[in-house]
């Protein structure tokens, strides 16, 4: 089972994710987020990550300058609110693995998925946040997992949105996902990761 712990912003909580067996760790580059990292902190955290764990940078419609500064620290570029054309251009320019978030509330939202074929390496199905929400992700919102039933996934994919230590095993059993992603569900407050919850989440996902 692959598990991404997202929004890590301290060495202690990053180490908890690594110790628990996370396959991916997420670093947020989006100033409105309580999990946003400056480049110095991101570099310090990225240096702690062993080669077998993927460092995922989370971006919302990023400009080229931000991507160029952050990319050397990262293995994967995760894009929110990106068109397939922009995602493909970023992938071609940086030569990195690129993921696109697909915001899901209704079955119709999944229609966006095939458009990313040839543009990205993986889709991240995440809960759609309200139009006026401060963030397009990391809000602890969940979508109806049954929307994925029978869907022909055009690319490798991950499940995200509102997962926590108590529901992740059920989410995996119902969706048969190979990769789960969590942020709020392993926090004690927005932007404050909880080492015990990280450990519990990883254990539950791997069980
Ligand atoms: O986490 C953030 O602050 C964030 C900000 C802007 C865009 C995306 C963001 N997070 C993306 C993620 O990959 C989260 O892990 C994902 O949305 C799930 O979050 P949660 O529902 O809180 O577990």
UniProtKB/TrEMBL annotation:
InterPro entries documented for this protein: Aldolase_TIM, PRAI_dom, RibuloseP-bd_barrel, TrpF_fam
UniProt-listed HAMAP family: PRAI
Listed name of the protein: N-(5'-phosphoribosyl)anthranilate isomerase
N-(5'phosphoribosyl) anthranilate isomerase (PRAI) domain location: 3-203
Pathway: Amino-acid biosynthesis; L-tryptophan biosynthesis; L-tryptophan from chorismate: step 3/5
SUPFAM superfamilies: Ribulose-phoshate binding barrel (SSF51366)
GO molecular function: phosphoribosylanthranilate isomerase activity
UniProt cross-references to NCBIfam families, sorted A to Z: PRK01222.1-1
Family assignment from sequence similarity: Belongs to the TrpF family.
Known catalytic reactions: N-(5-phospho-beta-D-ribosyl)anthranilate = 1-(2-carboxyphenylamino)-1-deoxy-D-ribulose 5-phosphate
Pfam families: PRAI
């Amino acid at each position: 089972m692959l598990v991404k712990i997202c929004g890590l912003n301290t060495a202690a909580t990053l180490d908890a994710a690594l110790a628990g067996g996370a396959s991916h760790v997420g670093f947020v580059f989006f100033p409105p987020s309580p999990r946003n990292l400056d480049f110095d902190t991101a570099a310090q955290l990225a240096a702690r990550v062993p080669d077998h764990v993927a460092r995922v940078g989370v971006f919302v419609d990023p400009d080229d300058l931000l991507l160029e500064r952050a990319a050397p620290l990262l293995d994967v570029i995760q894009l929110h609110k990106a068109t397939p054309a922009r995602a493909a251009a970023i992938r071609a320019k940086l030569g990195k693995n690129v993921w696109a978030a697909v915001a899901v509330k209704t079955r119709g939202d999944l229609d966006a998925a095939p458009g990313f074929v040839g543009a990205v390496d993986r889709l991240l199905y995440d809960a759609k946040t309200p139009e006026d929400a401060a963030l397009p992700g990391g809000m602890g919102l969940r979508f109806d997992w049954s929307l994925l039933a029978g869907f022909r996934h055009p690319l490798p994919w991950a499940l995200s949105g509102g997962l926590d230590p108590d529901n992740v095993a059920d989410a995996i059993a119902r969706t048969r996902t190979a990769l789960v992603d969590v942020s709020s569900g392993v926090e004690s407050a927005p932007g404050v990761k909880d080492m015990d919850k990280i450990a519990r989440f990883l254990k539950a996902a791997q069980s």
